Structures are given as C-alpha cells and as structure tokens.
Amino acid sequence: MTTSDPVSLEPTSDEGESRLIVAECFGVEVSTFQGEGPSGGHPALFIRLSRCNLTCAKCDTKYTWDWSQFDPRKESTKRSFADLAAWAASSPVELVVITGGEPLIQQARLVPLVRRLIAAGKRIEFETNGTIAPLPELVADGVRFNVSPKLASFGVKETKSIVPAALEAFVASGRAAFKFVASTVADLDRIAELADAHRLAPVWVMPEGTTCEAITATTRVLADAVAARHWHFTTRLHVLAFADARGR
Known about the structure:
By secondary structure, the protein is of the alpha/beta class. It is built from 8 helices and 9 strands.
C-alpha cells in the first residue's frame, strides 16, 4: 500500500482563503440523515474530507486515503471554506457532520468554516478517530465530537490508533462521545479496558458490517453484552436504508 500523496495538504490560495481537501459533500441535493451514534436518525448534511493518518484494513472509506486502490486526483478536490459554508447554508437542515478520512488532519483550516457554520445556525458533529487533539477554537458551543478509537481487530496497530493524550483532550472538552466498532464480545472487553484506563464516557458500540445481513448478525452477537454493561448501542442506519451507497 502506498501512502504517497500527489495532492498536497499545503495551503493554497483561493481569493485569499486556504482550501480544504474534500472527498465529497452530500445531503443538500438528496436528503439523508446521520446514520450512527448519538444523533442517529437526525437529518444531516455531510462534508467528508479526504486523507487519513491511519490505514485500517476494515476501513469503509478507503477512497479518502488508499492510493493503491484509488486515484486521489479523481477522489478529492480543493474547496474554500466560504464555498462549503454556502453549500451548507443552502439547506434548512441544522446538523452538519464533518467526517473523513480523518478531518482533524486539516483542523487549522476548519476553524473559519466552523465559525461560519455556527453563525448560520448550524450545529456540527466531527467524526474523528481520536488520534489528534482538537484545537481550542473547535471546542465551542454548537460543536460535538464523535470519537471512534480503532481497535486492533479493525486492522490497525493500537500503538498508532490509541493516543492517550488525544483521548484525554476529548474527555476534558466535555463535548465528546466515544463510539467503538465491534464484532465480538472480546472487542467489548477491550473497549471496557480503554474506557476504564482513559475515563471514556459515554460509550457507544456499533456493530461492524457493510451489509444489512452482517449488521443484523453482529448486533445479535453483541446486544446482550452491551446492554449488560449499560452502554449505548447504535446501528448503521445508512447501511440499512441505503445499502452503504456513497453520498447517502
């Protein structure tokens, strides 16, 4: 797998603005909703940024980072924060989900976008892998973080995917929920270890799967054990509703 990146993350000028590297935006032209976590089922707009600092084998958005399978010139574009804010403001939907990839790689350039979205009456959820602490400017009223630390079973070394200082920063923000992908009861035991070690709360568990059948089967494996721990459980509503189609 190559990690070479012919589309630079260095700032470029667009009428004096730095631009963000974006994989896709959706929810304005065709309506959708947040498919998982605390806001599951809420109408939502999505800004999916390109690039990630992890290379998880079970990632379902490899088109944001795996250039051995995808062409970054086809899978990403550069857009100004003003353009993105105007796109979101064109919809009455309140919730804007900024996801990836790993969106906080570009967080310095996200600050003006977040400020403009909040001024337009939007509320924002970041979907992040929890390896990069948020800038203080992003820890603001109207912003929440859905932090999804990746377990070794997800196909990544935890020496890279579990960053204690970053997790502690999210805990200290008071604006984070911790959402783990799991497929076995053994995964739940590991989640409990991490939650205890880093004081992660609230904990949400999401069944692994990219098909309705897989999500249903994994839900039945995990449900009793998640309930016994008094954790939250979330499905993947977008998969159940739209068969994991891109842009939904």
